[in-house]
Amino acid sequence: MKIIVLAKHAADPESEIHVGSDGKSVDERGLIFDINDWDRYAIEEAIRLKEAHGGEVVVVGVGSKCEDTLRKCLAMGADRAIKIPVDTGLDSYQTAEVVKEAIKDENFDLILTGLMSQDYNNALTGIILAGMLNIPFATAVTEIKVEDGRIAAKRELEGGLSEEVTLPVPCLLTIQSGINEPRYVSIMGIKRAKTKELREVSVSPATKSLEVEKMYLPPVKKADMITGSADEVAEKLIEIFKERGLL
Fold first, then answer.
1. Residue 233 belongs to a domain
2. pTM as predicted
3. Fewer beta carbons under 10 A from the terminal one: N or C of the chain?
4. Domains in the chain: how many in total?
5. Contact at 8 Å (CB) between 78 and 46?
6. In a domain, 241, yes or no
7. Is 56 within a domain?
8. Contacts for 131-136: CB closer than 8 Å, 24+ residues apart
9. Is residue 205 part of a domain?
10. What is the pLDDT of residues 201-237, one digit of tens each?
11. Higher pLDDT, residue 100 or 205
């Protein structure tokens, strides 16, 4: 079984965000980047499937600075990596487009992606890629089983519910966090990663689906302190509710 995993080199959501000087992008100075958290679970699940059923795990990263993340995936146990040095930013369509082109010669059985990215939370790249490849997909997957050449997946729904689906291969799954416990990268894994193939594929997106006109931080709202007796506070609250159409 050949499994392709998408791994994003994403900014830590706890980083302090600043808008770039152009007013249309994020200033990356001071940001801390690492493998996207949801993609970490996808990599671990791919490695476990390979250990159970044999095959190969190929990790794909998009971005000019994604090499560190790809090396970490190789250290975890992925067999080889493909780097696409194109910075697509917020445009999930472009990301899916270049991935589709880069893996066109890979005879894959399964593609795994994280449910979403920890920086933009779009949750779009995986399903757009599945549409471009014309293959079935399932989202928010919390359990995977390989049965008679088909993929049985349990996926998370709203309200604590779940459903089980069976998909033919090739197919694509977006992985929910908590599906497994991602392994730590060992010293030996880091050493082995240095000898594994990391191939760069130059691909340019043909379509631009998103144009950022302006990027800004949300305005900071200050709380109004209401003072006085209980009756006075109640009266002021009623006035505020009426002014805002809540009463």
1. no
2. 0.86
3. C
4. 1
5. yes
6. no
7. yes
8. 132/96, 132/97, 132/100, 133/100, 133/170, 133/172, 135/111, 135/170, 135/171, 135/172, 136/167, 136/168, 136/171, 136/172
9. no
10. 999 888 888 888 999 888 888 888 888 999 999 999 9
11. 100
- Residue 162: give its domain's CATH number: 3.40.50.620
Read off the pLDDT of residues 33-89 as tens digits, 9 standing for 90 and up. 999 999 999 999 999 999 999 999 999 999 999 999 999 999 999 999 999 999 988
Residue 65 neighbours by CB under 8 Å, 6+ apart: 9, 33
Q: Rounded distance, CA 138 to CA 132, Å?
A: 15
